[in-house]
């Protein structure tokens, strides 16, 4: 994506990546979302952000946790930062 997705876009993206249909993402599903957003990170960076996003430490990321990590990393509003930023 070259522009920042809308809330509806993010929810649709989250839902598509939720392969288990359980309304939460595991690490692999989280990686799929990052790829769709054009955020290419190393495995270590992805793991780190996943762990930071998993606020309740259940090993999954809910949509609320997903939105919180996007907001905390400055990905809410405006154009997307360059990959690797």
UniProtKB/TrEMBL annotation:
<feature type="domain" description="EF-hand">
    <location>
        <begin position="5"/>
        <end position="40"/>
    </location>
</feature>
<dbReference type="InterPro" id="IPR011992">
    <property type="entry name" value="EF-hand-dom_pair"/>
</dbReference>
<dbReference type="InterPro" id="IPR002048">
    <property type="entry name" value="EF_hand_dom"/>
</dbReference>
<dbReference type="Pfam" id="PF13499">
    <property type="entry name" value="EF-hand_7"/>
</dbReference>
<protein>
    <submittedName>
        <fullName>EF-hand domain-containing protein</fullName>
    </submittedName>
</protein>
<feature type="domain" description="EF-hand">
    <location>
        <begin position="41"/>
        <end position="76"/>
    </location>
</feature>
């Amino acid at each position: 994506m070259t522009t920042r997705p809308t809330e509806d876009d993010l929810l649709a993206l989250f839902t598509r990546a939720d392969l288990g249909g359980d309304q939460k993402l595991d690490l692999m599903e989280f990686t799929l979302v990052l790829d769709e957003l054009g955020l290419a990170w190393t495995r270590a960076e992805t793991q780190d952000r996943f762990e930071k996003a998993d606020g309740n430490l259940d090993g999954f990321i809910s949509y609320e946790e997903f939105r919180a990590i996007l907001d905390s990393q400055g990905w809410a509003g405006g154009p997307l930062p360059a990959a690797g930023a």
